């Protein structure tokens, strides 16, 4: 990654700005009421009610928030971060031994493109469920389903187990967040749980090496997350930017030690019939420091039909989207993200009812 490779160069309007705006506005929400109450139940109704309000406003106003006192053990986070660093510190040859194949999303790769520009990063993806059931093709008439499985790095030897332990914990957090989001929309707490029975969730280890031309490239180009919810751990380096809804400015999410960054994905946007929006974000790189981030993409079962919930639509507020099949959507995305293509990949607005 020495000379300027045109594959990484963003169009001028998408290049990072030299001045960074680090807003205080991205809410930090304390989840103590659901994690550290004395008798371990949802026992303090007023604290929960307040929490639900905070979650609702954050989803509406930002589509992004951070959580503290989230219940994921700090020691586990440290262990996954250390193991990930060891993994990425290996030679390219070693890492490429578990390169992601055409037939699964799991494994190592360093050639992802976002909006047809190559990202300055390398990643390792690991599925939450093994096997994960998924359609063979994005073709609507093809009913065939296949199984995705994980690839296991030899080194460091602890990585696989640490990832599995970590997934268990962030998954618990994701379910709790979905309950709070459901309540904030006036739904029953467990309204969303059924969608995640055979989930297609996965965890991603993102490594952003120092970049000699950080003013031209991005670690991840502007995008929205396609799934339901993302639970992201970022290290102290920083670089994640979120598009502020009020003025469309790019705002840096300040690293908060031990916090998780949560964002609403496209599926929540559709379920909520646009009450909550999935917000664009991107990652800046820098010329000096490596950066590590670990998103957990909480995604429903492949055969989920994604559409606005009946409870949230009516004559005054009719459904804004045609239903789509999540598994087919995911496969379509996978096929187009892998290579540079001259067409835009599939987006939820393609299902929008005009
Ligand atoms: O590295 C980050 O902070 C965010 C990465 C991201 O947005 C993604 O992987 O979808
Ligand atoms: Fe993202």
UniProtKB/TrEMBL annotation:
Superkingdom of source: Eukaryota
> What is the protein name for this chain?
Uncharacterized protein
Q: Which organism is it from?
A: Bauhinia variegata
């Amino acid at each position: 990654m020495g000379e300027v490779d045109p594959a990484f160069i963003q169009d001028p309007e998408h290049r990072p700005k030299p001045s960074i705006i680090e807003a205080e506005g991205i809410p930090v929400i304390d989840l103590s009421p659901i994690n550290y109450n004395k008798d371990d139940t949802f026992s303090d109704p007023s604290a929960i009610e307040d929490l639900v309000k905070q979650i609702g406003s954050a989803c509406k106003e930002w589509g992004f928030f951070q959580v503290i006192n989230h219940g994921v053990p700090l020691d586990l986070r440290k262990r996954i971060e250390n193991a990930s660093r060891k993994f990425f510190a290996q030679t390219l040859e070693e890492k490429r031994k578990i390169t992601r194949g055409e037939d699964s999303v799991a494994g190592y790769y360093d050639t992802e493109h976002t909006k047809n520009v190559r990202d300055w990063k390398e990643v390792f993806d690991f599925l939450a469920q093994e096997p994960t059931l998924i359609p063979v093709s994005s073709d609507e008439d093809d009913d065939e389903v296949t199984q995705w499985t994980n690839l296991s790095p030899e080194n460091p030897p602890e990585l696989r187990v640490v990832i599995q332990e970590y997934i268990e914990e962030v998954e618990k957090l994701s379910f709790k967040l979905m309950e709070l989001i459901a309540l904030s929309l006036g739904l029953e707490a467990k309204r969303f749980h059924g969608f995640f029975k055979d989930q297609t969730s996965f965890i991603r280890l993102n490594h952003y090496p120092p970049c000699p031309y950080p003013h031209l490239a991005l670690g991840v180009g502007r995008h929205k997350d396609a799934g339901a919810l993302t639970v992201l751990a970022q290290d102290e380096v920083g670089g994640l930017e979120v598009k502020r809804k009020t003025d469309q400015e790019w705002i840096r999410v300040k690293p908060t030690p031990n916090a998780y960054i949560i964002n609403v994905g496209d599926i929540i946007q559709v379920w909520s019939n646009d009450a909550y929006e999935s917000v664009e974000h991107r990652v800046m790189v820098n010329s000096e420091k490596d950066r590590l981030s670990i998103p957990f993409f909480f995604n429903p079962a492949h055969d989920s039909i994604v559409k606005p919930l009946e409870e949230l639509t009516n004559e005054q507020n009719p459904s804004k989207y045609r239903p789509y099949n999540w598994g087919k959507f995911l496969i379509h995305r996978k096929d187009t993200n892998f290579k540079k293509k001259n067409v835009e990949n599939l987006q939820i607005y393609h299902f929008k009812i005009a």
